[in-house]
Amino acid sequence: MINNGSKHLFLISSYPKSGNTLLRIILSSLFFSKDGKTNLEKILIDQLESIDRLVMIKSINKDDYFKLNDLNILYKYHLKIKEKSNFYFSEDFSFFKTHHARLNVQNHPYITDSFLRGFIYLIRDPRDIVVSWANHANLSIERSIDLILNPSRCIAWTGKHQKFPETIKPLSLISNWENHVNSWTSKSTDVPNMIIKFEDFITKKELIILDIVNFFKKNYGIEILNLDLKIKNILETTNFDYLKKMEEKYGFGERLKGKFFNKGIKNQWINKLTQDQSKKIKNRFISTMTKYDYL
User: Fold this and answer.
1) What is the pTM of this model?
2) C-alpha Rg value of the chain to the nearest Å
3) I want to staple 14 with a disulfide (CB 3.0 to 4.6 A). Which of 20, 157, 249, 287 is the partner?
4) Which CATH superfamily is domain 9-291 in?
């Protein structure tokens, strides 16, 4: 029986390259620091899809355990692995990052509201995501476009575990950009949630941070200590020039092939995509891009 009533997960969700890391840095600075100064080595919000959470499946069904490469098999256990007993915190809830779409596979849900304390969803212009992902993964623009249009797109889980075979490569279903956005923003939900546009996040950062602070105060009664000092230091240490220097000096674990902190700007696609490339994305996602004022 699945014990799924504790609402112990607060998720930071987004399509890849939509500002998830920046938001996690800011939340870590607000909640887990005294002064709000950014430390890339202490982003205390981990990936929900971490391989160590899958080890327990072996004791449930050994045959399935060795078939977790198969999304249909993995989805059978998505609720089981999200039980609080499979995590390592004693608090009422904890923050986690995910890029997973909130989609069902063979009638198995990715997550239900009974697990969720709440979530923040970040949305970004898909044309800028294409440019950012191409840089991040060292891909051509055309290949990056193919990926963002792919309704079956998946990415790998993170982490390792000494008891988990390296030959098993579990995947997160992220689908295409529009499916991902709608799976989190159009689905009926009873839990507190907040939608943030990446473009607002980088151009009106202080206002967005105050909105986040008010969101947690209103919905959870959480007061942030030393707020003025924290906001001052967050603004100084989360601009992309500062983050790039920190990455160059100390490295960054989430980096793939290109620099992780690259531009952090909006409308970079204007000088990077051809008219045909831009049109291809627009024609596919016109409804959702219009809804969020990207067209």
Assistant:
1) 0.91
2) 19
3) 20
4) P-loop containing nucleotide triphosphate hydrolases (3.40.50.300)
